[in-house]
């Protein structure tokens, strides 16, 4: 990217020291250090001198010279006191790590060294029961947070230095890996209870960062594909980056403005890259766009290093101020034995972490959650959202009736309006037909239908008919438009009325209407077998964690200083070998646990293959179930809208009905006036016609001439 937006980092508070019967001046300068790198140096020197003191004076737990030592626990603010000089060392180490985290969160992020070293040394060399903030879970969380943030600093530097896209992608992917480990720790219920209120804030920030740096990783994979002219891959990587960034934006709600600005900036970059890449591929390159899961996953590159902690390094601690108190031989031998124990722990942990990584990747790819692998229980209950709608309708029993009645009233008014408009139209057509007949009788050519009416001198139509015709046309147009809306409203009502009746009915009918899976005995056996193997996986995880914790506790409690004092230097190696044999049994248990993983995962793979068809069927039923629920909820939510629109329709048609009724009366009156006018014209025309001409007498006619002239038949005489 042209610039590198920054995300905020998490830093840890320093512990506050309390009682410790040590030189006041030394104590003050060691616990109230400045918040800079000079403060880190002071803490290292103090730690070293405490180590020298411990090697000479029995100030450990339950030893003769032990004195009370008090520090404030970070999360609760309580004062915790132990009579053990190692507690003082542990708290100083914690503050060393916390101070490094504070300095690392400042603006100058130029070093990839991080605070994880102090927390790692604290985790591996000290008991975890001193206080909550130094428990094994919290220290693991701190280590992964610090490694992730250090890798984040390195990522910023790499982008500023314009390093190769593939390297930047791997560095960013490693940031994601570290933060995923931290997120797993944050999601642990025990860790969450220890952290208290800050757990949610940290988790939300870390989850957002996981998606954000995953987007950065795929952005640079897309840039690498662009450099290699793999234009189809470029599109899918940029699309994936855009999807992950959108997820990060969703999770960033409530984050400070600096985060929002960084997300907006990154969206501009990724969005522009994606749109350009897609357009180029659609119109120029026409390469097939592969599915993301067919491409090789981006493997993280862990390039950060934890600051090493060596309490006895003279370059750090300065001169040993207790050098004359006790011989160093026993202390040196104890340090060597501690290193042997640390080496043993590192070897075991390397195997455990390797197996855990394989297990995590395998389980992520399977996407199998033991708690919801079949999800059958949800089909036995009506979901709360639907129960809420049923409950709401139960106190409104006339819901469906009101809706139907409202629509019936609307239909009645609609029909009345349509009948009135039809009658008006029929009256106008009848009047027009009568007018044409009149014109034909008067010997005039009939005017074409729909043409302008004749002038008043020759037309019998009432002047009001033209106005009626115009108004009728307007009402018909409005009615036609409203008729479409009315039809759509009826369709919507018919769509939802059945669902509303269902929701208003007995709950058994609602439950019966929801889809549910039908499993054969073979299907049930497949599910049972899969659950059994998933339980084995969890059992293996729990046992592995327990054995690891036991090993750490054994190493922490393993102090052979008394034996070293009485052992000749030449016998030290043999003593170490004999003492380390105490760990053989737990190492065997761990080896068996790790070896069992391959067989368990193979069995899980086979079980998952058989589960595929069942899983597909369950997924389809779940989709139908969700769709049905959403449809029923939508019908409930549509009720008020239907009632509102129905009322609006009634109001509209009631108004239109009044106008149509008045117009009908006006049309009738105008048509009557027009008919009367036609009758007057007809009578006038009849009076203007001359009397009929006399015809010549026929030879055989017997009528008297005067009778014929009068138009009388001779037969009429007999009646006189």
UniProtKB/TrEMBL annotation:
Record keywords, A-Z: Coiled coil, Cytoplasm, Endosome
GO cellular component, one term: endosome
Entries under Gene3D superfamilies matching the protein: alix/aip1 in complex with the ypdl late domain (1.20.120.560), alix/aip1 like domains (1.25.40.280)
Spans annotated as Disordered: 444-466, 675-720
GO biological process: early endosome to late endosome transport; endocytic recycling; protein transport to vacuole involved in ubiquitin-dependent protein catabolic process via the multivesicular body sorting pathway
Domain BRO1: 27-359
CDD domains: V_HD-PTP_like
InterPro entries (UniProt xref): ALIX_V_dom (IPR025304), BRO1_dom (IPR004328), BRO1_sf (IPR038499)
Residue ranges that the Swiss-Prot or TrEMBL entry lists as coiled coil: 414-444, 530-557
Localization per Swiss-Prot or TrEMBL: Cytoplasm; Endosome
Stored PANTHER family: PCD6 INTERACTING PROTEIN-RELATED (PTHR23030), TYROSINE-PROTEIN PHOSPHATASE NON-RECEPTOR TYPE 23 (PTHR23030:SF30)
Protein name: PTN23 phosphatase
Species per Swiss-Prot/TrEMBL record: Brachypteracias leptosomus
């Amino acid at each position: 990217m042209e610039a590198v937006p920054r995300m905020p980092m998490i830093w840890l508070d320093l512990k506050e020291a309390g009682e410790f019967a040590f030189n006041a001046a030394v104590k003050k300068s060691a616990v109230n250090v400045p918040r800079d790198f000079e403060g880190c140096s002071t803490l290292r020197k103090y730690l070293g001198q405490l180590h020298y003191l411990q090697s000479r004076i029995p100030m450990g737990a339950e030893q003769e010279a032990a004195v009370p030592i008090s520090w404030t626990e970070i999360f609760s603010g309580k004062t915790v006191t132990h009579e053990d000089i190692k507690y003082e060392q542990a708290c100083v180490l914690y503050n060393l790590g916390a101070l490094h985290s504070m300095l690392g969160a400042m603006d100058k992020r130029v070093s990839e060294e991080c605070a994880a070293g102090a927390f790692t040394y604290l985790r591996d060399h000290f008991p975890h029961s001193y206080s909550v903030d130094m428990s094994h879970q919290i220290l693991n969380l701190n280590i992964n947070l610090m490694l992730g943030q250090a890798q984040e600093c390195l990522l910023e530097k790499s982008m500023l230095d314009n390093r190769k896209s593939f390297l930047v992608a791997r560095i960013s992917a490693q940031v994601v890996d570290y933060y995923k480990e931290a997120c797993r720790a944050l999601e642990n219920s025990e860790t969450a209870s220890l952290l208290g209120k800050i757990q949610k804030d940290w988790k939300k920030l870390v989850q957002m960062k996981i998606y954000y740096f995953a987007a950065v990783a795929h952005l640079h994979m897309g840039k690498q594909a662009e450099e290699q002219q793999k234009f189809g891959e470029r599109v899918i990587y940029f699309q994936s980056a855009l999807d992950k960034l959108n997820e990060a934006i969703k999770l960033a709600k409530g984050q400070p403005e600096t985060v929002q600005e960084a997300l907006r900036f990154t969206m501009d970059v990724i969005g522009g890259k994606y749109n350009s890449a897609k357009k180029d591929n659609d119109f120029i390159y026409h390469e097939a766009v592969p599915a993301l899961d067919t491409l090789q996953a981006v493997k993280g590159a862990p390039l950060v290093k934890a600051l090493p902690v060596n309490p006895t390094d003279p370059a750090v601690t300065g001169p040993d101020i207790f050098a004359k108190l006790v011989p160093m031989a026993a202390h040196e031998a104890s340090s060597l034995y501690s290193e042997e124990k640390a080496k043993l722990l590192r070897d075991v942990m390397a195997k455990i972490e390797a197996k855990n990584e394989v297990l995590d990747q395998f389980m992520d790819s399977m996407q199998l959650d033991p708690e919801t692998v079949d999800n059958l229980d949800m089909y036995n209950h009506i979901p709360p959202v639907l129960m809420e709608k049923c409950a709401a309708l139960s106190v409104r029993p006339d819901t469906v009736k009101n809706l139907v009645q409202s629509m019936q009233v609307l239909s009645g008014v609609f029909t009345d309006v349509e009948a009135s408009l039809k009658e008006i139209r029929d009256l106008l057509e009848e009047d027009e037909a009568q007018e044409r007949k009149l014109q034909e009788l008067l010997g005039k050519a009939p005017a074409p239908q729909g043409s302008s009416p004749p002038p008043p001198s020759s037309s019998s139509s009432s002047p009001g008919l033209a106005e009626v015709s115009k108004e009728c046309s307007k009402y018909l147009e409005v009615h036609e438009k409203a008729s479409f809306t009315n039809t759509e409203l009826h369709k919507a009502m018919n769509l939802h009325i059945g669902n509303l009746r269902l929701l208003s009915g007995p709950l058994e009918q609602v439950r019966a209407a929801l889809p549910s899976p039908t499993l054969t005995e073979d299907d049930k056996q497949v599910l049972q077998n899969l659950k059994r193997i998933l339980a084995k996986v969890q059992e293996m995880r729990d046992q592995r964690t327990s054995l690891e914790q036991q090993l750490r506790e054994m190493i922490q409690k393993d102090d052979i200083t008394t034996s070293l004092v009485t052992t000749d230097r030449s016998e030290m190696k043999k003593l170490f070998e004999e003492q380390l044999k105490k760990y053989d049994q737990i190492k065997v248990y761990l080896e068996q646990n790790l070896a069992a993983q391959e067989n368990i995962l193979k069995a899980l793979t086979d079980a998952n293959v058989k589960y595929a068809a069942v899983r597909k069927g369950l997924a389809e039923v779940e989709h139908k179930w969700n769709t049905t629920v959403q449809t029923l909820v939508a019908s409930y939510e549509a009720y008020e809208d239907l009632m509102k629109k129905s009322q609006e329709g009634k109001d509209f048609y009631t108004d239109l009905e009044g106008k149509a009724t008045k117009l009908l009366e006006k049309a009738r009156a105008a048509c009557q006036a027009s008919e009367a006018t036609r009758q007057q014209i007809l009578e006038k025309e009849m009076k203007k016609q001359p009397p009929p001409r006399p015809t010549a007498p026929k030879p055989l006619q017997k009528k008297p001439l005067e009778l014929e002239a009068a138009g009388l038949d001779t037969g009429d005489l007999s009646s006189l």
